[in-house]
Amino acid sequence: MPKIISYTPPWLSRPSPGFQLFNTGAQSLNANSNVRGSSSHQEEYLGPNRTIAHRGSEVFVVVGKQIRWADLPSLKDEWQAVEETPSKKPAAKGAGFMLGNHSVEAPENEDGSYRILKASIGEPIRQLCISPNERLMAIVTSHTVHIAILPQSELLNASHNREPLKLKTYIIGPTTHVLKQPSVASVLWHPLGENGNCLVTITADAVVRLWEFSTENRWSADSPALAVDLKKLLVASSEQDDVAPNRSTKNKVFTSDAVGMDAASACFGGAGYEDEAPWSAMTLYVAMKEGDIYALCPFLPSRWQPTATILPSLATTIVEKQTMNEDEEEMTLFHKRQCEDQLRWVNELDGQEPIGSNAVEESDIVQTYRRPSGLKAIPRLQGPFQVLTEDSGEILELSDIHIVAGQLDSESADDDDDSEADSDEEPEKDEGLPCSLICLSTVQGCVYICIDLEGVEAQWLPRKPQPTSPPPPIESPLVLLEALETMKPKDAKPSEWPTFSQDAESPYSLFITHSQGVYYLSFSPWLANLRKELLNDDTSGTKFRIDILRNNISTLRERILSFSTSIPSSLLKDQAIPPACATIQDSDLGYFLLTSHADQPYAATLDKPYLPPSPDLNPDLSDEYQVLPELNPPSYPAYQPPNAFYATSSLPRFIDTNVEPRHRRIMKEEQLRMSNATLDVMTEAHRVLSRETDALQTAAADLFRRCETLCEVLRNQVMNAGEVAERVDDIVGEDGNGGPGQRVEDRMQRMGERQEELVERFERLRKRMKMVEGKELSVREKEWKEEVGGVKKRILGSEDVDNEDADDADEDERDGPERDPRATDDSAAEHLKRFQDVQRLAKDLLEQTKELTSSDSRPTSRESNQPGTNSSDAVPSSLRRKKVLEVKKMLAKE
């Protein structure tokens, strides 16, 4: 779900130059109402309002009968340049504007914030629709349709030339789409048309026309390539029936089947992407005001450009279906004929050679095919698909329809390298549903979300009437998943017409615009569970499980923008319903939402959720990734002054515009004459003054209410801040009262004394533990300890010493790593050599002792006669010292 970062940016707010893009200018408060009330059919218009279109970051805006163009990043850059360097005036020409405390003056007749695109259109423009190739734009009024050739972006954005630019336009159906004919309900560009030049128009009387427009052939705009009356097609029994629309509105025959066939809106089942189901982009859905939905499949021009996956997937699907139907004995005649027609249609396509290839880009090659001629170009009308059952008793008044195409079955598509590369780049396509998702809106602002489990496939009428043939099966109703309310029924206006807008980020989210604001709807919370259930091979109990899912479905709904409800009705008129919003994804603007209401822009900058880097692709960054804290969204948008404060009064020019020339001299005299003419002039002046003062009063009252609300909010914030300050003062003790502060100081003093006692107790315990442990070892004792340890290691080995010092010596000795056998042999040899040396020394000592003992036992007569002579004196002192040194050395070695 996108979070709101900010509302209408400063570079689109008054008095910046970007505000003038949507503003009609400083004109009279009564001028708009007088012009708009000049023709009756304009006030009776009830239909979609799509007067904002975009081509990348470029926007095309309709203001009255005027088309304005602007590049939003350029507007933003110019505003930032003036804010940073006030002395630098932008190259824009216009009626002057203020940026902060700096004023920029310009001529009153031009405005450099936008560029005017002139088109010879005499009625208010209701819809703008840009072609898929972004070279053409359909301009739609209530009854007429024009196609304009759009200039290149470089030409429009030329800074040295901001003069109005005249567009080259073509009238579509100069005898068909006129004021005397039914109004235009919807205008669409065919997603599979050749070079994106095929236009589809649907009128309110349920007549569909396909125009194969070409700038090289001017006659292509005079008559449609295909025209079908859905009321006649609904009751047609074969291809021989006349389903062409009547050329005049007179002598129309009433039939019961024509009841409830007033078209409200239309939409193609797909946008022509490669991951869509094959029949989606060639299926036209038409929603009727009474609540029924009809479908035409396939609805194609004479030359069309399929995607790389349409033909292979169609061939695979139809062949598998044909094989399965041959095994079924209970197959109806209708389904058998349908499979045969589909197989024949696809075989004719496979036998064709592409007419030519148009390289839109170096890596993108589009092939053009002819529509198969073996079957009629106009298919059978499928439907009606009902949202609510007849038992419900509820009557729907539909205003718009939006289709999300089903996902292409991966098993039926070719797994080439290009498709694998695309799947790696677009992981979101695996999250789609295998069936179409249908969204419907009503004039009361209610949104119905449905799915078509069976899907729509190609069907044709029989070639000849067959009285004995069974009627086609009744279409199953759509599965209603959820119904959402985006507006209270009492807030709906008489001319209410909610419209959908596609989200630029995800196909499974959209925006709906009506008089109360703009709402965001996302189907992501329940999309995965429903997809898992639909892709399950076990079909037993599917209906029961889907019913359980329906009870747990909760679509994400959020209000993005709210429109002011205090605008006087005299200023709205045909602007009471805001245009459908446009979502733009641009590196300079971000995720940007734009619409307008009452000559004022309404915008919001959204923040899409950022996914952390995948650990499989970059494991080093996955551990260091940290989610940034969420931004606090603004509580409400900034106040925008209404146009009533800036509109000029018509009273100074009232006499010149509303008083007859013969009475003007009388009105300019100092003393007025009491007459009927004077009374009429004063009455009309009072009406004008009442309208102007009412508009000013309403705008001032709205400002006063806002100020009161802000004062109340500020008062509550001050009170809350005061309570928090009192609590802090009570804790810190700076309240100046002496009571609570003294208690805090006494407590702090007691805590300090307690801390000192604990420190003294700790010191006493530490000294006592020192006495228990004993004195420290002296230097000689430490050396002797190290010497003993070294002797122990030399005798037992370092590994044996470590094993003996361990707590689990036996376990370590049993489970530890094996020793090197060569190291063990060396240690054993060294120990054996030492043992032999000790034995040899002991043997020598014994022999020497025996010799000394024997010599002492046999003393000489001379020695025995000498008094005081000891036996030890017989050993020479030098020999004794030598032997003692040898013994010490041996001990030192051991």
Automatic annotation (TrEMBL):
Region Disordered, residue ranges: 409-431, 731-752, 795-894
TM helices/strands, residue ranges: none
A GO CC annotation given for this chain: nuclear pore
Compositionally biased intervals (Basic and acidic residues): 743-752, 816-850, 884-894
GO biological process: mRNA export from nucleus; protein import into nucleus; ribosomal large subunit export from nucleus; ribosomal small subunit export from nucleus
Keyword Protein transport among UniProt keywords: yes
GO molecular function, one term: structural constituent of nuclear pore
Subcellular location: Nucleus, Nuclear pore complex
Keyword Cytoplasm: no
Segments of skewed composition (Acidic residues): 411-429, 799-815
Domain of life (superkingdom): Eukaryota
Protein's recorded name: Uncharacterized protein
Lineage: Eukaryota, Fungi, Dikarya, Ascomycota, Pezizomycotina
